[in-house]
């Protein structure tokens, strides 16, 4: 999820990590075990005057299958579930309105299952997960071919 946001104006920093679970400072291996309750996520530091939250949500929708509650493309499991995190009531309203608009658009024949949840403690992932698409571009592209096809067909 870093790559689609990385070159956008108003984005100051993007960090891969884990959030929403009950284990303090989990490791990648712990999150993969499906016992921590954490979801893999990105934390985005942004300037809302340049990159409004509405635009971040719009970019997010174009990167995921919002109808798949059990993962994303080849990444399977509750730690890959689709979720939008918000930091305040205004962001929550924006995300909910956007989800409703997408559902009503008829773009997807199945229901939108992406949840909208309050942001909780965010734990940065290990260094080798940061900017993965830049560190190993061939592996990244191979792993995300299904995502690219989905985006092309649906957006």
Automatic annotation (TrEMBL):
Domain of life: Bacteria
Keyword check for Oxidoreductase: yes
Family to which the UniProt record says this protein belongs: Belongs to the MsrA Met sulfoxide reductase family.
Occurrences of domain Peptide methionine sulphoxide reductase MsrA (ranges): 3-141
Keywords for this protein: Oxidoreductase
This protein's name: Peptide methionine sulfoxide reductase MsrA
Catalyzed reactions: L-methionyl-[protein] + [thioredoxin]-disulfide + H2O = L-methionyl-(S)-S-oxide-[protein] + [thioredoxin]-dithiol; [thioredoxin]-disulfide + L-methionine + H2O = L-methionine (S)-S-oxide + [thioredoxin]-dithiol
Enzyme class of the recorded protein, top EC level: oxidoreductase
Molecular function GO labels: L-methionine:thioredoxin-disulfide S-oxidoreductase activity; peptide-methionine (S)-S-oxide reductase activity
Protein's job: Has an important function as a repair enzyme for proteins that have been inactivated by oxidation. Catalyzes the reversible oxidation-reduction of methionine sulfoxide in proteins to methionine.
Keyword Cell division on entry: no
Its EC number(s): 1.8.4.11
InterPro entries to which the protein is assigned, alphabetical: Met_Sox_Rdtase_MsrA_dom, Met_Sox_Rdtase_MsrA_sf
